[in-house]
């Protein structure tokens, strides 16, 4: 008898929901900073020093966090023409190929980011207004692609298991997860 396997077990779904909420709160904070800064600049003739830097740096982390979530939930921009018409093992094979490409691209980005962050750290570069070490915003790319590589590895393992098992419940759970997204 086939075991019912959901595409996103409850603990991982809880982590995703918490991350989505945190990213949403960060976006709200960026909007609030922007409103306060614009109000201060145009109504009070006072600009808050470094507000633009903070907003840009936070947005970089928000984008990378969103990219990790998108990969994990298969909600990222892709061309899914073939998987949408494929069923069973063919669909899981296409997903596994996609996962391998995502893993390879993420690992390459991690390597390139590591080299760049190491160079920035050696130079000791800081931001112009607040003097924030530039390693902080540049590390967002390294951390984001590192997390994407981990996610890609997990979904690759999941899709290979589905491919080997040829389990229709895994197929249904994957299709339902896609339709929900």
From TrEMBL:
Residues 31-161 form the Tripartite ATP-independent periplasmic transporters DctQ component domain. Keywords: Cell inner membrane, Cell membrane, Membrane, Transmembrane, Transmembrane helix, Transport. The chain crosses the membrane at residues 54-72, 93-115, 135-157. It is a multi-pass membrane protein. It is found in: Cell inner membrane. Pfam families: DctQ. GO terms for biological process: C4-dicarboxylate transport. The keyword Membrane applies. GO terms for cellular component: plasma membrane. GO terms for molecular function: transmembrane transporter activity. It comes from the Bacteria. The complex comprises the extracytoplasmic solute receptor protein and the two transmembrane proteins. Belongs to the TRAP transporter small permease family. This is TRAP transporter small permease protein. It comes from Pseudaminobacter soli (ex Zhang et al. 2022). The lineage of its organism: Bacteria, Pseudomonadati, Pseudomonadota, Alphaproteobacteria, Hyphomicrobiales.
């Amino acid at each position: 008898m086939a075991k019912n396997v959901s595409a996103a077990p409850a603990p991982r779904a809880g982590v995703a929901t918490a991350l989505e909420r945190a990213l949403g709160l960060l976006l709200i904070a960026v909007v609030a900073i922007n409103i306060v800064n614009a109000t201060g600049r145009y109504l009070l003739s006072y600009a808050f020093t470094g507000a633009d830097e903070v907003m840009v740096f936070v947005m970089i982390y928000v984008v990378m966090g969103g990219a990790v979530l998108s990969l994990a939930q298969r909600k990222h921009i892709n061309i899914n023409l073939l998987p949408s018409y494929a069923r069973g093992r063919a669909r899981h094979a296409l997903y596994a190929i996609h996962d391998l490409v995502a893993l390879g691209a993420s690992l390459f980005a991690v390597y390139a980011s590591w080299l760049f962050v190491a160079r920035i750290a050696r130079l000791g570069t800081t931001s112009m207004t607040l003097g924030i070490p530039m390693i902080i915003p540049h590390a967002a790319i390294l951390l984001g692609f590192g997390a994407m590589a981990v996610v890609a590895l997990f979904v690759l393992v999941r899709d290979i298991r589905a491919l080997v098992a040829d389990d229709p419940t895994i197929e249904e759970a994957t299709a339902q997860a896609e339709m929900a997204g």
